Amino acid sequence: MLGFDPSTALITGASSGIGEALAYALADRGLDLVITARRAERLAAVKENLEGRVKVVTIPCDLTATGGLEHLIKTLDEADTPIDMLVNCAGLAPHIDFLNADDSSQQDLIALNVTAPTRLISHLLPPMRARGFGSVLNVCSVAAFHPVPSMAQYGASKAYLLSLTEALSEELKGTGVTVCALCPGVTKTESAMTEIVEALPEAMVLAPAAVAEAGLNALDSGEVVCVPGRLNQAAVTAAQFQPRWLVRSLGGLMAKFRTESVATPSHRKDSAKQ
Ligand SMILES: NC(=O)c1ccc[n+]([C@@H]2O[C@H](COP(=O)([O-])OP(=O)(O)OC[C@H]3O[C@@H](n4cnc5c(N)ncnc54)[C@H](OP(=O)(O)O)[C@@H]3O)[C@@H](O)[C@H]2O)c1
After folding, report:
1. Does the structure show a pLDDT above 90 at 70?
2. Given this structure, which CATH class describes domain 8-269?
3. Ligand 1 atom 16: residue of nearest CA
């Protein structure tokens, strides 16, 4: 299945969306779970849903708050449960452009999308390497492959995580530890913009469970980069063969659409039509 017999997975961002789907998919594969996110009641609900199937430990924690990440790492260390699989899924995708974002939201995005996964990888990789097995699944995005005007920092943070994953996959060859970057396109979760989900053809909008399965199957088969969905794969491949100026410009047009969608929610558009 995963090429080894992992027993416990740590999942960040497991209170909803793709992270929650990964929790159920990993439980289906028999792994015990340590799940974390801010909303304690949502983590408790996931734990309750898995009652009697696998062991689930919840660690409510805000990874952008001062001391939040250290609290998570200290709690893991004190529990002394070997983590055989790390899933970095918690992420922020604010729909505000960089120029209008205040300093604290810019720092929060870096803390959650960049610092937390990096620190967890560097903390948990050495024991995995010492045991000679383990895996890391980093939830990136198709946004990792190109700049994203109007969500510039988000795209940059996902490009960082993709690049880190690919480089580590080479450095870890022969160690028994595998890494994979899961790069979904638009997925129907709490943080996906309704206007974008509704504007896209149904075939381009993914379900969290399908994304989770694709990521775990990719890890099983040793893939380093996984883009779920044929249309998303085609879009990513096409973008890689275009000149960067064109990809940037198309990103700028998409940004205008996104900004207008945010400024004019669908219920206001409907009432304007009447
Ligand atoms: N949905 C998409 O279209 C899409 C596309 C590509 C990539 N992704 C990526 O997929 C990942 C999961 O997102 P999702 O779509 O499943 O959205 P989601 O349902 O909103 O999940 C985000 C998760 O991150 C956690 N989180 C947010 N802020 C946090 C904080 N400060 N500290 C700790 N945990 C925090 C949330 O839990 P709490 O609120 O309880 O803290 C939640 O569990 C993200 O990395 C996202 O960038 C999503």
Report:
1. yes
2. alpha beta
3. 17
